[in-house]
Amino acid sequence: MSTDTSDIELVSSSQAHTGKGLGTGNPADEFVIQPPRTRSTKTPRRTRTNFEMLAWLFMRLSGVVLVVLILGHLLIMLVLDGGVSKIGFAFVAGRWASPFWQGWDLLMLWLAMLHGSNGMRTVINDYAEKDSTRLWLKTLMGAATVFTVLLGTLVIFTFDPNI
Amino acid sequence: MSAPTIDAPHSAALDAAEAGGVQMITFTLRIRRFNPEEHPEPVWVDYQLTMDPKERVLDALNKVKWEQDGTLTYRRSCAHGICGSDAMRINGRNRLACKTLLKDVNPEKPITIEAIKGLAVLKDLVVDMDPFFQAYKDVMPFLISNGNEPTRERLQSAEDRERFDDTTKCILCAACTSSCPVFWNDGQYFGPAAIVNAHRFIFDSRDEGAEQRLEILNDREGVWRCRTTFNCSEACPRGIEVTKAIQEVKRALVTRRF
User: Fold this and answer.
1) Does residue A65 share a domain with residue A27?
2) Which domain range does residue A147 map to?
3) A141 and A103: one domain?
4) How many domains is chain A built from?
5) What's the gap in Å between the CA of B119 and the closest CA on chain A?
6) Mutate to test the interface with A, among B224, B228, B246, B253 (most CBs of A within 10 A)
7) For residue B157, is pLDDT > 50?
8) Does residue A139 share a domain with residue A85?
9) B30: enclosing H helix or E strand
10) Is the pLDDT reported for residue A88 higher than 70?
11) Using 50, 70 and 90 to split pLDDT, how confident is the model at B13?
């Protein structure tokens, strides 16, 4: 039984996942199967913020609100009063004349975009293997989110029915 | 304990066979072998065995090792589900080989056996457990208390003991952590086992280190990475409600802040 691994230093500290061994002279290093991203032997540096908790809470709370907002939105758009055939410039203009629907759509825009991009953030965290890839993907996604949110907000507030 | 050999069958099995109670079956054990000194890639190897279906998968592994191929490598110690050495992936699910009966894993088809996922395989079914135990150590799995030591036992009511009873059952076999898809993708995640062992002290009325442990688990690689897949609860050979324990830590974190 070769279960004694005390002299095998396969996981070195602070080295990122490379898909290959970590070069400690052990023959197993070359052919590690499905290597995990190694957990460093030192505890990762603490960030001491509540960001992850707040993001998690936001997902739960915004999800509940979004169920109401989106189902209501779909009901109005697709079912009530003639369904999709009624939707046109005049219909949108009529709705956005009311601050209530402006607020509804604004809230839906913000919550849906932030909810979605926070979800994407966790997906990227999970699947990006390299730190640089992760950073780029998150930057791109953040930029797209900010752009969409700002553009949508601008349109809702500056919408001119007489255009 | 001794496994049956060809010449001298297992006495219990023989007794039962004489009484007409045992139907020996022939089945295939398909083991994912890996020896980096011989072949860079893992290979599936089939072994034919004839055994009592009421024996355990560990007995089958022993039979292979002792009678067919002595190079087969796996961990096992107590063989009774307490030491937590022989967690492995049997037919795609994490189990303890010593607690799994052959008849329960459908011996009509080849029984597949692999090393647990998410940890580097050293040889055959042996993985490098260091990252797993590092996560365990990082949550400080020991009693932390301030002030003078009491002159007698630290007393605790039955209710207070009951609060964390479930998470005291952990045997650190890594079946939960290595079944967690978040851990497969991110080895930095503490993983269910470490959180279970943090839970065991966080909710212990005698312990005063809860705040420190909660702070550790509040971080990026802490409990918030859990997305309740329930793989851990399903995998736990001790029947610990792992996902529930993780959720309780989350709740403690949220209620601590708000």
Assistant:
1) no
2) 51-158
3) yes
4) 2
5) 6
6) B224
7) yes
8) yes
9) strand B25-33
10) yes
11) low
